[in-house]
Design brief:
304 residues; mainly beta; OB fold (Dihydrolipoamide Acetyltransferase, E2P); 3 domains; 5-stranded mixed beta barrel; 4 helices; elongated
């Protein structure tokens, strides 16, 4: 059972100095809100009745050798952090406060959890920030990992924000491990073409999102791993929400023919829909998106 959680998901916080001393003796990983990053890049944590300090060198794995930049500390302000309590000191007012180490919590997480992961393992993660090329997630105690944009879903998106929001809890699979660096994938958990197509029937009118406009038609996403093709219309924009009539479904070619019935405001940014996972646990050896008779072979093999 995984005992290590993304920051913000651990419900363990000492309410008093006496409780904090117990956490210290038992080496318990705790979590609390970071309220300040000092000009020395120490992190100040608020426990309610007392405070704690994470010295800069204890702020994260890699700070000492420069492989982790100070922005990783600055960006934790007003966010929860996980740590081990290593001792106590008096602050400038003479009040007793805790000395903390986020680095030790991360090293424990790496040793007892992350280093044991294998390609194909399905794990929980939390979206921390997004770039054009992919989504960064916390896989435990603030340890970051990347989901490249092309591994987020089969249906292509222009930015990870089309699929995720910061702070969202998601599931992923370990795609590769290179010198301890883990890259994740997400699309394999969202179902095959047939599994997604089974949610629809010919003759239905449903909603979708325009993902791309090509010279031969408009691709409309019905689900993250399922899109159909509609005829060109001059009033359609990428990102538009549309209602579409399902004209035909052709499993052998993995095609869905659509007719756009109506279009809605493309400028209104909506929160991504809740994700439905077809696989939620275990470990994958391989995954095949394509239908049995399709001449396209969309396939993932997890090399261990």
């Amino acid at each position: 059972m995984n005992r290590y959680f993304p920051e913000g998901e651990l419900d363990k916080c000492p309410a008093s100095i006496a409780e904090a001393e117990e956490y210290t003796e038992k080496n318990i990983i705790a979590e609390a809100l970071c309220v300040l990053c000092t000009n020395e890049h120490d992190l100040i944590v608020d426990f309610g009745s007392f405070r704690g300090r994470i010295p800069r060198c204890e702020g994260a794995v890699g700070i000492d050798d420069g492989s982790t930049r100070d922005i990783a500390l600055i960006s934790r302000v007003n966010k929860p952090v996980q740590f081990r309590i290593t001792g106590f000191e008096a602050n400038e007012c003479g009040d007793r406060c805790a000395v903390l180490s986020r680095r030790l919590a991360q090293e424990e997480c790496i040793k007892n959890y992350i280093s044991l992961l294998k390609c194909g393992d399905i794990i929980p993660a939390k979206v921390t920030h997004m770039e054009q090329f992919g989504a960064f997630v916390d896989i435990g105690c603030g340890i970051p990992s990347l989901i490249p944009i092309d591994l987020i879903s089969v249906s292509r998106i222009s930015h990870p924000a089309d699929r995720f929001v910061v702070g969202q809890n998601i599931l992923c699979a370990v795609k590769s491990i290179d010198d301890g660096k883990i890259t994740l994938t997400h699309k394999e958990l969202l179902g095959t073409w047939q599994e997604n197509a089974n949610k629809y029937s010919i003759g239905e009118t449903v909603t979708g999102i325009v993902r791309s406009i090509e010279s031969y038609g408009i691709f409309v996403e019905l689900r993250p791993n399922l899109a159909g093709l509609a005829e060109l219309r001059p009033d359609i924009k990428v990102g538009s929400k549309v209602s579409v009539y399902i004209k035909a479904m052709i499993p052998d070619k993995m095609k869905i023919k659509l007719i756009i019935v109506d279009t809605f405001d493309a400028d209104k940014k909506e929160k991504p829909s809740e994700i439905e996972y077809f696989i939620t646990s275990g470990s994958l050896e391989s995954w095949k998106y394509s239908t049995e008779r399709s001449n396209k072979n969309i396939y993932t093999e997890f090399v261990r």
